[in-house]
Amino acid sequence: MHVMQYEIGLPADYDMGVIRDRVATRGHLMDAFPGLGVKAYLMRERGEDSPVNQYAPLYLWTAPEGMNAFLWGPGFQGIVRDFGRPEVQHWTGLSYQEGPSSAAPPLSATRLRSPVPSSTAPADAVAAALEESRRLAKAPGAVATALAADPRHWELLHFTLWDHRGPREAGERYEVLHLSRPERARLREGRHW
Fold first, then answer.
1. If I label 50, which of 13, 19, 92, 110 is the partner at 20 to 30 A Cα–Cα?
2. What does pTM read for this prediction?
3. DSSP character for 105?
């Protein structure tokens, strides 16, 4: 599994209805994309538990070929054309778990990025993060959760989809506008090594 996200910051007075309409009219285009486990169309709105307006879709890829086909194909070129070229963040998948609300449509998502201190052994940090990921996966209202790592910057990422607003303490909160999940069943549950 490969995790990928880009964040498009928008002006404070931006009409977020534009993003809602964009996803409503174009979101379905990824519903059958090869190599894509899940794409969560995420948005944060200033004043709604967020200091900023932001469009920040997050992807769980089942294969690097799918990620590459998207980045070098017409889908991402539309983002570049409409918003400029964003920095694409990516992490190596460490685990994936379906939650007790896996059949429910997600309404929100949380993302928690945590640095791995240089004084901590990476394996110890990952072991602790796996325990936290298992806990999140069992939480009431959890649809699914993924854990990933960026070994270049030594950062861990917890990403969880919720069938409700999601807990405030779990990191940044996003509204889920649409969920494409063409190969969700191919996202292997449990630890990925």
1. 92
2. 0.95
3. P
